[in-house]
Amino acid sequence: MGLSQWSSSPPSSSFFMHAFILLWWCGLLVTSVVGGNNETDRLALLEFKAKIIDDPLQVLSSWNDSIHFCQWRGVTCGRRHQRVIVLDLRTSKLIGSISPHVGNLSSLKNLILSNNSFHNEIPSEIDRLRRLQFLLMSNNTYIGKIPRNLSHCTNLKIIDFGRNLLDGEIPTTLGTLSKLRLINFDFNDLTGSIPPSFGNLSSLKVFGTAYNNLGGSVPTSFGQLMKLTFFGVGVNRLSRRIPPSIFNLSSLKVFVVGLNQIQGHLPSDIGITLPNIEKISISSNQFTGPIPISISKASNIKLLELDENKLRGRVPSLEKLYRVSMFVIAFNELGNGGANDLIFLCSLTNSTYLTYLVINMNNFGGELPKCIVNFSTTLTFLYLDNNKISGNIPLGIGNLINLEDLRMWNNKLSGNIPSEIGKLRKLQIGIFDQDCCKVAIKVLNLLHHGASKSFIAKCEALRNIRHRNLVKVLIACSGVDYQGHDFKALVYEFMTNDNLDGWLHLVSRRNEVPKKKNDLNLLQRLNIAINIAHALEYLHHHCHTPIVHCDLKPSNVLLNDEMIGHVGDFGLARFLQEATQECFTNQSSSIGLRGTIGYATPEYGMGNEVSIYGDVYSYGILLLEMFIGKRPTDNIFKDNLNLHDFVTRAMPEQVSNIVDPIIFWKSEDMETRTNDTQIQNRIGCPKILECLILIFGIGVSCSMESPRERMNISDVVAQLHLMREKLLRTRIRRERLQLTGKLFMTQYLLL
Asked: Which residues form the signal peptide (predicted)?
């Protein structure tokens, strides 16, 4: 056949059809492999659902073939190609892990899984989501490392992994994500240092890594972030100085570096170079020098926390801080004991939102200015104690009608306590000196329902009981104020170390700004737990009439200067018949109000009468809280998961994963902490691990749902004592070995 003959013969239509179909299938195959399609998305979502082990709100009940997957709850598809572009399941109370198949949702722009109970690791397959912009996964229980290959998601604008259990270092590769606006890794267990590469993120506005274990220093490169508004790195192990360039970021609104080991001083022009600043917290560091005079020019400041440093000199005038609500400069070396030390207080009368004024533990002298009676009526906390303040308490102090906590002890005040204090009907505390003995005065708010009965209950409960682990009441006061209203107060023995709650939890009630570092080690916590158990054993079994406390919780356990626990606040206490251990009268109609949510025993909510088993339940919850560092009302405890079940599921193999790591950071009965690997080794120490398992076992046994299954408090005391003896024997043996080693080395060196 010649060429001309072939060219003149038209090809068959079936040939073109077969060729078209072949090319179409090839294209479809390539699309499926490389970019995915609708079916890929549907299968990926079903794989995601398969990893969910509990869905109490039935959020994923619509995820089935009855409707198109683009109509499934939490799923949003693009209009053109019907591909998934948003997966938003925030606050859905889901429990489970994330399927690696999520990486097949190749068109996904927003992945939002915040406020659930997702666990296990974050799958590395997320790096395949090249169009991803928002990655919000905060407030879950993810473990493991931050995926290093997230840098492949070059369109990311927001990364939020806050409030999880992530560890390891922050990947430096994230510094290549030029579109990032927000990075939040707070409340994890991250180590290493802050990557200097983050200084290249020119679009970054928010950077938060608070409550981790980050060391090193703040990178100088952060001074290049001209759009930065929020810088929060508090509660880490950062040291050295803050780069001066950071104080020149005029966009900065929040600067929080509290509870680190940072040195240096505040720049003299800070109030000028940071014109938009609203919150400054440098608490618990090693800052030196004076408070800059220019601070008064920062008129937008709402919170100024400079406490627990080494600041010296006079406090400048603050007359332009109109918006400040929290001014905290305690635990410094401010003032010189002179007559004019407290003049700055008068400049704060312009601050109409002032709520916290805390200047205690300094060197302030002179008389207390009369201008303090003109403070805003919003003032709630006024701490002036442990200074050198002299003179009388101003008569107009009754103007501060919303004052709840007034502390003036350990000064040189003279004269009478003004009767106008009777006007302060909201006053509850923390304190004066009486006969060279510090005392705490608790004034009852009689406007609250049942306050008078509460006062009577306190007096009855404390009148005849004496025990080394119960707060001592020195006197009860009852009368009328100058307006003829009832006035009732209790004068307690003062406890210098406040309450247990403040030592167990880093977050204060002041907008979650760190207040004080937790440094209770394992042995200290065990001793306090024994103190509390002794107090309950006395109340339940050794009083003339058994007493049920009814409101046992960390804030009602006070600590003296030797860190010995004392149970206090008997406002809800009840007397029981000794034989039956049941309440004298049937008061089940109000029993649901007994105690505090999270600590109150379940049977009280069902109308059962008060019993000692209720206190044992509260003790069990408190004991678990002491050693895992989480309140029973923590966000991770939702729906079917509570503190008791959380510990039970971890027993015994996973105990090392739930124990509060802070126990091992500052421990007198262990070596000084040097790195995080050593912490894990300590947790894995057989004797310590055995001790923790036993402690958690007691806590679980005490907090059983059925009252009759709970341990007797006397058995608790006995077991905890045995546990402490074992722990101390281990410590003594180790110290002997260490001493032997030192002697050997000494002899070797002498040779």
From this structure: 1-35
- The tens digit of pLDDT for each residue in 42-80 reads 999 999 999 999 998 999 999 999 999 999 999 999 988
3-state secondary structure of 54: strand
94-to-51, 54, 116, 159 alpha-carbon distances in Å: 10, 6, 5, 20
Under DSSP, is residue 15 helix (H, G, I), strand (E, B) or coil? Answer: helix
What are the DSSP calls for 413-431, one per residue? E-SPPPGGGGG-TT-----
Mean pLDDT for the chain? 82
Q: How far apart (Å, rounded) are the C-alpha atoms in residues 520 and 417? A: 37
- CA 467, CA 691: separation in Å to the nearest integer? 27
Closest CA to 556 of 698, 694, 442, 450: 442
255 and 233 in contact (C-beta within 8 Å)?
Answer: no
The predicted model gives 184-210 an average pLDDT of 95
Q: Where are the domains of the chain?
A: 264-427, 440-494, 519-738
Query: Which residue is it, tokens 């928002």?
Result: 134
Nearest to 116 by CA among 134, 146, 138, 99: 138
Query: The whole model's pTM is what?
Result: 0.67
| DSSP letter for each residue of 112-137 | E--SSEEEEEPPGGGGG-TT--EEE-
Q: What length does the chain have?
A: 751
Nearest to 171 by CA among 180, 360, 163: 180
**Domain 519-738, what architecture?**
Orthogonal Bundle (1.10)
Distance from C-alpha of 498 to C-alpha of 440, rounded to nearest angstrom: 11
Exposure on the CB side of residue 318, measured as CA atoms within 13 A? 29
Fold adopted by 264-427: 3.80.10
CA distance 380 to 675: 41
**Dist CA 518 CA 627 (whole Å):** 12
Average pLDDT estimate for 124-136:
95
Least confident of 160-174, 273-287, 384-398, 506-520: 506-520
pLDDT at residue 198 tops 60: yes
Identify the three-state secondary structure at position 562: coil
Two tokens at 400?
A: 């501060």
Pull the structure tokens for residue 432.
């004066």
What is the per-residue pLDDT for 450? 58
Cis status of the peptide bond prior to 652, with omega within 30 of 0: yes
Q: Can you read off the two tokens belonging to residue 249?
A: 């970021």
Q: Measured between alpha carbons, how far is 723 from 400 in angstroms, rounded to an integer?
A: 50
The number of beta carbons lying within 10 Å of the beta carbon of residue 615 is 28
Identity of residue 727: L
CATH code linked to domain 440-494: 3.30.200.20
Exposure b/e, 422-458, CB count within 10 A at least 16 = b: bbbbebeebbbeeeeebbbbbbbebeeeeeeebbebb
> What pLDDT score does 151 carry?
93
551 labelled catalytic: yes
Q: Which of 41, 186, 341, 551 is catalytic?
A: 551
CB 657 within 8 A of CB 138: no
Classified as helix, coil or strand, 85 is strand
Q: Rounded CA gap, 543 and 111, in Å?
A: 59
Sheet with 310-313: strands ordered across: 288-289, 310-313, 333-334
Distance, CA of 581 to CA of 591 (rounded, Å):
16
Q: Out of 104-108, 390-394, 687-691, give the one with best mean pLDDT.
A: 104-108
Q: In this predicted structure, what is the pLDDT of residue 28? A: 44
Residue 54 bridge partners (DSSP): 95
Supply the DSSP symbol for 454. H
Q: What's at 522, amino acid-wise?
A: L
Residue 650 CA to residue 630 CA, distance in Å, equals 15
The whole-number pLDDT of residue 6 equals 31
- In this predicted structure, what is the pLDDT of residue 608? 72
